[in-house]
């Protein structure tokens, strides 16, 4: 099993294409629209080889667990990595336009935390989950849980 760090912004499959004297990997538009990545930003890219024929298998990403909640049926679009009522430790990375703390979890998914400051690591309860952002409340400012 491949261990995937929390800092991973996105994971998708794509072909490496030739474009003159360079090679191009196209990023699906859905990765930008879900907020996993942003145009104009710089990212570190890792490539995993495809298993072909008799070559030794390269580490492959593990399939996500099937979501049995009918309200979140598989639409081919990645589902949010958090659930309402979930308790999580997060780290506030920046401030949003309204002054709320912004934390990122798996795949770069954004969690908004009121009154958070960059560097804070509170324990939060996820209150509202949307396709590309969740809203949480602090249950312990020191990140120790309740």
From TrEMBL:
Disordered: annotated span: 50-87
InterPro entries (UniProt xref): NA-bd_OB-fold (IPR012340), TRAM_dom (IPR002792)
Pfam families (UniProt xref): TRAM
Annotated PROSITE patterns: TRAM (PS50926)
Protein origin, superkingdom: Archaea
All residue ranges annotated as the TRAM domain in the record: 81-140
Protein name: Deoxyribonuclease
């Amino acid at each position: 099993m491949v261990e995937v760090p929390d800092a991973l912004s996105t994971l998708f499959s794509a072909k490496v294409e030739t474009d003159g004297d360079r090679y191009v990997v196209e990023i699906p538009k859905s990765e930008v629209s879900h907020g996993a990545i942003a145009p104009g930003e710089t990212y570190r890219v890792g490539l995993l080889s495809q298993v072909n024929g008799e070559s030794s298998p390269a580490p492959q990403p593990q399939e996500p667990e099937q979501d049995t909640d009918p309200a979140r049926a598989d639409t081919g679009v990645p589902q949010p990595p958090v659930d309402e009522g979930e308790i999580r430790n997060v780290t506030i990375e920046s401030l949003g336009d309204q002054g709320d703390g912004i934390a990122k979890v798996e795949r770069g998914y954004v969690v908004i935390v009121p009154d958070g400051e960059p560097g804070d690591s509170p324990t939060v309860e996820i209150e509202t989950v949307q396709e590309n952002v969740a809203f949480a409340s602090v249950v312990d400012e020191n990140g120790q849980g309740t």
